[in-house]
Automatic annotation (TrEMBL):
Organism: Candidatus Venteria ishoeyi
Domain of life: Bacteria
Protein name, UniProt field: ISLre2 family transposase
Length: 478
């Protein structure tokens, strides 16, 4: 079958090349030549993919293995169904796919369950998600995540000959981005991450987006649709990366990013799950970075307690830039003539970690009873309570980071450039999907994530597939 497809393509191209050459020499339009040749290659690609996929799904050996695998999952084969799948080129083809349903329980007849409980196991095992091929799924997701809207993503894909509507893109994002915590925290890991003798840096911060919530009550008669609230929400995001003994980032380890709408406690539970999936016992040190928000450090302390970290191996660093910004707020209470000298002295004391000396200098420099009271209140609330996190000179000497710029950059790229766009309002579940998917895409782990996503069903089936050398026999049959 495959040989016939290739021969037919070669025969057709022998006649077509002459026509294309003449058209190109007359018009000098290379874009038209590109489009015509690409179309022919796309048709060949689709025909080969359809033939190879259909041959596999119709093979009796493969079907018998699917039945064994389905039986372990409490399902049974019902019939072959004619379904339409979309290939990487955007072409839709029809194939006969084995369809499995839940096995009927023994005993008395029970009430019928909800529809949609069946599965096209053959397609799922080969990597199809929502009847879309793995390559097309990756392209469609990336366009949805990177373009400013679904509509723009549809337009870009249409220019490449792929016709998917907004509803389909939204459905694919939901399918790819909705996972339980135990799967979510390992699906972007390759299993080959080397943490030996490195320092792990965990940074946490919050972003902003507007959540769309439907208004309570009935829709007014004069309105076409129900109104909704658009309150600001704070998704919490974290990053994990490695540094060596000199404080340089380890480029061989792609950082881990993730974010959630579930709240401040949930983000630390998410971090904990990620850490459990990594061999953190190989690490030399663990550093937590953040700004002065109390929820970050309260969550960090609880996380360290739950994980049972050695206190001598864990460091907490309050971002140097945020510390200086808060120092500048106190500086505004100093008379103008003394500000330059005071700032130089205060920044030096802060860098050295001499927090007590900094407090005495502020009390001596700020004049006026009301101004001094405000200055010391700021010092007590922000600096005095974070003294162990402000030992910047010691951190620098030990090769530890002094700031949380890594997570600040991730907030801008993951959240601000797409989810915080003007006039954009998000349903909570779709915002959660986009936070997760954009994190995987922008941290450099997209190929690992997609490979694991499309192989989820195949891994359980693999032990059945290779048993007794059936794999080689099946290859000969196909």
């Amino acid at each position: 079958m495959l040989t016939d497809i290739i021969k037919d393509f070669a025969w057709r191209m022998e006649n077509r090349v002459g026509e294309l050459t003449m058209e190109f020499t007359e018009s000098l339009d290379f874009s038209a030549l590109e489009e015509a040749l690409n179309k022919e290659c796309v048709n060949l690609n689709a025909a080969l993919q359809q033939a190879m996929l259909q041959a596999l799904l119709l093979e009796e050996i493969f079907l018998s293995l699917l039945k064994i695998h389905a039986g372990r999952l409490g399902m049974r084969f019902k019939e072959y169904r004619r379904v339409t799948v979309t290939l990487s080129s955007g072409q839709r083809v029809e194939i006969n796919s084995p369809y499995f349903i839940k096995a009927k329980p023994h005993g008395r007849r029970r009430k019928r369950g909800p529809n949609g409980s069946g599965a096209h196991s053959g397609l799922e095992i080969t990597g199809f998600v929502g009847r879309v091929s793995p390559c097309l799924l990756s392209d469609a997701l990336q366009m949805s995540l990177l373009c400013p809207s679904y509509e723009v993503a549809c337009t870009v894909l249409k220019g490449r000959g792929i016709r998917l509507d907004v509803k389909t893109l939204r459905r694919l994002c939901a399918l790819a981005g909705t996972h339980e915590t135990n799967l979510r925290t390992c699906i972007s890991l390759s299993g080959e991450e080397n943490l030996h003798s490195y320092t792990m840096v965990v940074s946490v911060d919050g972003g902003r987006l507007r959540e769309r919530k439907r208004k309570r009550g009935r829709k007014a008669k004069k309105l076409k649709r129900q109104g909704y609230h658009t309150d600001w929400r704070e998704p919490e995001l974290f990053t994990i990366y490695l540094t060596n003994s000199e404080g340089n980032i380890v480029r061989e380890f792609n950082p881990l990013h993730d974010a959630t709408m579930a709240g401040r406690e949930a983000v630390f539970e998410l971090i904990e799950a990620y850490l459990h999936n990594l061999e953190i016992e190989q690490l030399e040190r663990i550093v937590f970075c953040g700004d002065g928000a109390k929820w970050i450090w309260n969550g960090t302390e609880k996380l360290c307690e739950r994980m049972g970290f050695d206190k001598n191996q864990v460091y907490q660093v309050l971002d140097w830039t945020h510390a200086k910004q808060n120092l500048h707020e106190i500086l505004k209470l100093v008379v103008s003539k003394k500000q330059a000298v005071a700032m130089g002295k205060w920044e030096y004391l802060l860098w050295q970690g001499s927090i007590d000396a900094l407090g005495r200098s502020i009390a001596e420099t700020v004049t006026g009873k009301a101004a001094r009271k405000r200055a010391m209140k700021k010092f007590t609330n922000y600096f005095a309570g974070n003294r162990k996190r402000m030992q910047y000179a010691r951190f620098k000497k030990a090769g530890l980071p002094q700031g949380s710029g890594h997570v600040e950059s991730a907030i801008r790229r993951v959240i601000n450039l797409r989810l915080k766009a003007p006039g954009t309002f998000w349903l909570k579940n779709m915002a959660e999907c986009f936070l997760f998917l954009r994190s995987q895409l922008l941290c450099g782990r997209w190929n690992i994530f997609m490979g694991n996503l499309t192989a989820l069903k195949r891994r359980d089936f693999w032990s059945v597939y290779i048993t007794g050398g059936v794999c080689s026999n099946l290859l000969e049959a196909v």
